[in-house]
Amino acid sequence: MKKLGKAVVASIAAACTLFAGAGFANAGEAPSGTPSQVSVRSMYNKTRLQSAYNAVLAIANGNTARNYKQSSWMVMHSDMETARAMLNDANDGISHANGAMSQADVDNTANLLSGYPGIMQTAVPGEPTGADPLKSKGDLQAFYNRVKNVQESSYPGNENWASFRIARNSASYLFEPSHGNESQYEITLTYDNLYHATKELDPSLLPASHTPSHNPAPAPAPAPVPTPAPAPADPKTPLRNAYDKVKGYKQADFVASTWSAFAAERTAAKALLDNASATQAAINAETKSLNDKAAALINIAQLKSDIAKATSLKPSDYTEFSWYRVTLSLPYAKYVVANNNASKNDVDSAEGVLSSDLNGLKAPIAGQKTGADVPTSPKSKKDLAALVAQAEKLKESDYTADS
To answer: Labelling 341: which of 123, 254, 270, 390 has CA 20 to 30 A away?
Structure first.
């Protein structure tokens, strides 16, 4: 249900007052003394309005009030009262905000009534229906007193605060001295609006007596069936989990000096898992030892992958300088992989540099030198001197600033 601000509540009051004095004993009753046909002379065509009114009157008299929310049921009655007043006004003199009644007003009201009951909100378990008693001003006062001191600081960032504040202000407005002739329907609408706004903000603030007798809340769910106690945990579970995590490790993916100790520990863990007589102390010690040896492994799988990628590339597909950087980092990477005693720092450094150089490769533009123009590594001092001489001939203007 949409929230009702002070201005909206005030406008509803006028419509509510119409049928509050028209003989309605309760929200679920139809207008008393209303004929099924109204025969008056009029300068407007009210045939469609009369038909639409009769159809809605049948809904009101059809004992269906409990099928709809109380607020929707009251709005329907408000629209019926507007139509009834139009039908009974022989002089077409009903005053509206924009002047006297017009044919457009008649047609619009007929269109509105034609939407019933489709536009009504169906009843929700635990909330008032059209068949429930209307709220009194005392009910609204008690509810308002319950929430009037609620502070925004208690709900920082809550998107429902603004709607709650508007609904609470609307309720407060009804208690002002200048607003002492409100109808029971207006009070009920205000109460319902405050209820829904409070429910969205904090259900714990709701009055316990809100649930009506005509539409009780669903029965509480049956108590859950106790869950059987879980079976005792396998004492070898921590060791089995540690072993399963590393059982697929391959020697080729790690530095040789770190592999041998790990492999021996993994074998010992498997034997202990297969030993039905293993003590808990032995299991705990082996779990820690296996995890420590696994943590000490130095992985070279990614470095090997980068080396394979660099080796598969064609120098002519990249600029001279970007490829030259790869030719410098690739030999060191190969050296680290071949070193059985390489440290983690060695691996991380080689992998970081080669990966960066591979990511920095750039395709040449027309006429630009490529990696095919990079000289091979010098084999002697003479070759080195020739390489230096060639480098000295390079021109800065032939290259981009970042290279």
So the answer is: 270
pLDDT tens profile 256-308: 999 999 999 999 999 999 998 999 999 999 999 999 999 999 999 999 999 99
- Cβ neighbour number for residue 10 with a 10 Å cutoff: 16
Query: How many Cβ atoms sit within 10 Å of the Cβ of residue 167?
Result: 28
Tell me, what amino acid is at 203?
P
- CATH number of the domain within which 310 lies: 1.20.1270
8 A C-beta contact, residue 139 and residue 212:
no
Residue 87 neighbours by CB distance under 10 Å: 21
Residue 328: inside a domain, yes or no? Answer: yes
The 3-state DSSP class for residue 6 equals: helix
**Same domain, residue pair 108 and 192:** yes
In a shared domain, residues 201 and 255 = no
Q: Please write the tens of the pLDDT for every residue from 44-66.
A: 788 998 998 898 888 888 767 78
Dist CA 178 CA 62 (whole Å): 38
Residue 149 to residue 156: CA distance in whole angstroms: 16
How confident is the prediction for the chain on average, in pLDDT?
A: 78
- How would DSSP label each residue in 269-316? HHHHHH-TT--HHHHHHHHHHHHHHHHH--B-HHHHHHHHHHHHS-GG
Helix, strand or coil for residue 357? helix
Number of domains into which the chain is organized:
3
Q: Packing angle between helix 344-359 and helix 320-338, nearest 10 degrees?
A: 160
Instruction: Identify whether 222 is part of a domain.
Output: no
CA 113 to centroid of chain Cα atoms: 38
- Which one-letter DSSP state was computed for residue 252? G
Output the pTM of the full model: 0.39
Task: List Cβ neighbours of 133 (8 Å cut-off, separation of 6 or more).
Answer: 26, 212
The H or E element containing residue 338 is: helix 320-338
- Examine the domain organization and report whether 3 and 77 are in the same domain: yes
The predicted structure's pLDDT at residue 335: 92
Query: What 3-state class would DSSP assign to 128?
Result: coil
Number of H helices, E strands in the chain: 14, 2
Residues 287 and 315 occupy one common structural domain: no
In a domain, 232, yes or no: no
Whether residue 266 is found in the same domain as residue 196: no
**Domain with 372 in it:** 301-398
Whether residue 247 has pLDDT greater than 60: yes
DSSP 318-384: SBHHHHHHHHHHHHHHHHHHH-TT--HHHHHHHHHHHHHHHHT--PPPTT--BGGGSPPPPSSHHHH
Q: Are residues 289 and 179 in the same domain?
A: no
